[in-house]
Design brief:
With 786 residues, the chain is an alpha/beta fold. 39% of the residues lie in helices and 20% in strands. The chain starts with 6 loop residues before the first strand and ends with a strand.
């Protein structure tokens, strides 16, 4: 048995719509099911979704667009200085580039400014506005920030700066007082789609300025949109689709150089390339140094400079990864080991030496590890301020709950699932206590169980190249259009092993009666020792195509595994227990010992607290082993001990070792004619000194000394002979009896049968024998159908 890491929510099929799409659009059943799961009901909607029909919305539907365009064109005509005020993440950098390059193309006197994450923080700040005014700026246009800059807007008015805000973050109850606010989520907005990224809003402004859609900007719109994890529905989906198609032909030297140093193929860029290759690298300079580097990369027209900047960015990203790993390790240890946090439902942690540029990533790691919302702060005791980043779980709205703590948060902004903030260090613990109080009012224990929504259950036979290629028509995948996760039931994993330099990943072959499919489970390597190759496995994952040496094969990117039955692990006979004991589960494991001497012989002293010595049938019956992992260390006296021990109890796993020094099955078992010969010999001798002459007799007869002693004991049991100090004497006229009347003979036969059943059976025979007694528990019933 193996419990899944998350709770599986499986979508139920709507067969009528599925069959309709299969017939009308010539789709595989899986792809038709995926369309239905995304709320698509008609053939026309399906065609539009699959074949990328549609146009972008009119940018002038955004409120204040006319005002912004008029003021910017006036600034261009009058050679006024314009500053594009950006942000330091991938969305902010691409937003800055999109608007900056547009204004340059229109002949504007324009520059850009991105605040320093460490000294200025996110968004507008008064010092920056005053500095820009002193440098001759007449008009500031923000991108990907500004909606929370109430005070800064007032400062701009005071010092004679015109301010246009373009943003997509959640508006607060009060909007900044400025010349224009271009924001799809403004109250009473008429814009048809509210989920544009910051770069999407900047692109709308650029489109309105240019009077047309600029294809050379679309790759950057795609990068910023995917990188900011906004919804990939509606217009965002269209923008990303168009942008991805144009990346292979993109002539931007900086983008081409970044793809090259990252080892990505410019001709095969998809949303995964952006999310896992480009966006983290574009984010890296802003996290560790200054985000200007990313803008300069995209602006340069010098190939050598482009490559040098790209290489510098790539190096910064490697450094960022190392810093994140170190801080995450510290944070996890702090939360688990400090009693202060034992009842907390919201994780709030901070430290002086935690790099402020990566705390958002660390917060994400904490959410993944503990399934709880997390706020991570970097303390600056010189200023007395704590800069923080927060990430959440679906049932806890960060923006809403942080809004209830505004008196502690002079500066914060964000979304339902992520936020950034600055506050006094002394107020961090107050914020922690208040958020935990709010969480206890809103959340139930079930809300902390991470869920995985599954698009459907398919057979292994359905996983083929045609299905996967059709499925790719649903791309780009991302927020609100996730890459489909499917479930495959009742397969076996005949080949399974951990791979990677640290064994971090899981490589496997999935098989049923007719087909085999490869699978890889990233970060699941620890499961290699907890899955029997003969277990019936259910798993969930994403379908993918593995291409190697021009050979294309389907594979599954496995996300989670569940085994809905007890498991048998076979360690019989050929390995010392210390060679595999470290593979046992760390908790809830019991060592079952039937022979007390086995404890010393096998050096089980380190595990004594988990050893159950079963010496009697009553001890076997009363053993507390429900829902445990059992290590059967040695052989029981007879099978009834095991039957009684296991009968009608739920066992998670059995590790069969069955140690014994000597085996009865392959020792010489005297036949009936051997007994007849030996009895005749004893009758002729009348007395025999077995202690001194037994070996000679064994050598003469061709039997082992153990066989001679065994037959002697059988005759003693049957009262055919007497024994006194090694002298065997014949009993005259004994009562006639069968060999099976001897306790010694019966035990030998029973032990041989026991060895045959437990030691020398095949894996499947042993599993079948155990199945007679163990109570099955169906953990699959815990999955939810939606």
């Amino acid at each position: 048995m193996l419990q899944s890491k998350t709770h599986w929510k499986i979508r139920q099929d709507h067969e009528v719509n599925i069959n309709h799409f299969v017939n009308e659009l010539n789709l595989t059943p899986l792809v038709a099911r995926l369309l239905v799961n995304r709320g698509i009901e008609t053939v026309e909607e399906a065609k539009s979704f699959l074949f990328h029909n549609g146009e972008c919305y009119d940018p002038f539907l955004l409120e204040d667009m006319h005002i912004a365009i008029e003021r910017i064109n006036q600034a261009i005509r009058n050679k006024e200085k314009i500053t594009v005020y950006g942000d330091y993440d991938a969305d902010g950098v691409t937003s800055t580039y999109v608007l900056l390059s547009t204004l340059k193309k229109l002949g504007a006197n324009v520059d850009f400014y991105i605040p320093n994450r460490f000294t200025e923080g996110y968004g507008p700040n008064e010092e920056a506005f005053r500095f820009l005014k002193d440098q001759g700026t007449d008009l500031i246009v923000t991108v990907d920030n500004g909606i929370a800059g109430i005070h800064e807007a007032n400062v701009a008015k005071e010092i004679g700066l015109d301010l246009i805000i373009t943003d997509h973050h959640e508006p607060g109850p009060e909007l900044p007082d400025c010349l224009a606010i271009i924001h799809p989520k403004r109250p009473n907005s008429l814009y048809p789609f509210q989920e544009l990224a910051g770069v999407g809003v900047a692109f709308k402004l650029a489109t309105a300025l240019l009077g047309e859609v600029s294809e050379e900007l679309l790759p950057f719109v795609a990068i910023g949109t995917v990188g900011d994890l906004v919804s990939l529905k509606d217009e965002n989906r269209l923008l990303v689709q168009k942008g991805l198609k144009l990346i292979p032909s993109c002539q931007n030297l900086g983008l081409k150089a970044l793809l090259k140093v990252a080892g990505a193929d410019i001709h095969h860029v998809n949303e995964m390339t952006i999310g896992f290759t480009l966006a983290p690298r574009i984010n890296a300079p802003g996290r560790l140094e200054h985000a200007d580097l990313g803008v300069h990369l995209f602006l340069t027209e010098d190939p050598e400079e482009a490559f040098a900047i790209a290489q510098e960015i790539n190096d910064l990203n490697k450094q960022r990864q190392s810093i994140v790993d170190e801080i995450a390790k510290e944070a996890i240890a702090e939360f688990t080991e400090n009693e202060k946090y034992k009842d907390d439902q919201i994780i709030v942690l901070g430290k002086e030496n935690w790099h402020p540029g990566v705390i958002g990533i660390v917060a994400s790691r904490l959410v993944e590890t503990f399934s709880k919302p997390a706020l991570v702060f970097s303390y600056d005791y010189t200023t007395g301020l704590a800069k923080g980043s927060a990430r959440s779980i679906p049932r806890f709205d960060l923006f809403e709950n942080l809004s209830k703590c505004r008196d502690l948060l002079p500066h914060f902004g964000g979304h339902k699932m992520a936020a950034g903030m600055t506050l006094k260090i002394e107020d961090v613990d107050k914020l922690r206590q208040r958020l935990n109080t709010l969480a206890k009012e809103q959340l139930t224990p079930e809300d902390f169980i991470l869920e995985t929504e599954i698009d459907g259950v398919i057979s292994l036979d359905e996983i083929n190249l045609e299905t996967i290629e059709q499925m790719e028509r649903l791309a780009p995948f991302g927020t609100d259009n996730p890459k489909p996760i499917i479930m495959v039931k009742d397969v076996q994993l005949p080949n399974i092993r951990s791979v990677g330099s640290d064994g971090k990943h899981l490589k496997m072959t999935m098989a049923n009666h007719s087909v085999e499919v490869d699978g890889i489970g990233f970060n699941l390597g620890e499961l290699a020792d907890h899955i029997s190759p003969f277990a019936n496995v259910s798993l969930i994952g994403e379908l993918d195509i593995n291409e190697w040496n021009h050979i294309r094969k389907p594979q599954v990117l496995v996300k989670d595994i569940q085994i809905n039955e007890w498991q048998l692990f076979d360690y019989r006979g050929h390995r010392k227990i210390e060679q595999w004991v470290d593979k046992l589960p760390k908790e809830n494991c019991k060592f079952i010992v039937f022979q007390e001497e086995s404890i010393g012989k096998l050096n089980l002293a380190p595990y004594l607290k988990d050893v159950l010595l079963i010496s009697t049938m009553d001890e076997a019956k009363d053993a507390v082993i429900q829902n445990t992992h059992l290590v059967l260390v040695d052989l029981p006296p007879n099978s009834m001990y095991l039957e009684t021990l296991l009968s009608n109890k739920s066992i998670l796993r059995i590790y069969a070792y069955f140690y014994q020094e000597d085996t009865a099955l392959f020792s010489t078992m005297p036949k009936r004619e051997h007994f007849k010969w030996y009895y005749s010999f004893l009758r002729k001798q009348e007395t025999f000194d077995i202690q001194n002459r037994g070996h000679d007799l064994a050598k003469f007869s061709g039997l082992s000394i153990e066989a001679i002693k065994f037959m002697t004991q059988v005759f003693f049991d049957l009262e055919f002979v007497k024994m006194d100090n090694g002298i065997v004497s014949i009993v005259q006229s004994p009562q006639k009896r069968n060999l099976t009347d001897s306790t010694t003979y019966k035990r030998r036969i029973e032990h041989m049968e026991l060895e045959k059943t437990l030691l020398y059976s095949t894996y499947s025979e042993l599993k079948k024998w155990f199945d007679q007694f163990i109570k099955q528990v169906n953990i699959e019933e815990e999955n939810t159908w939606i």
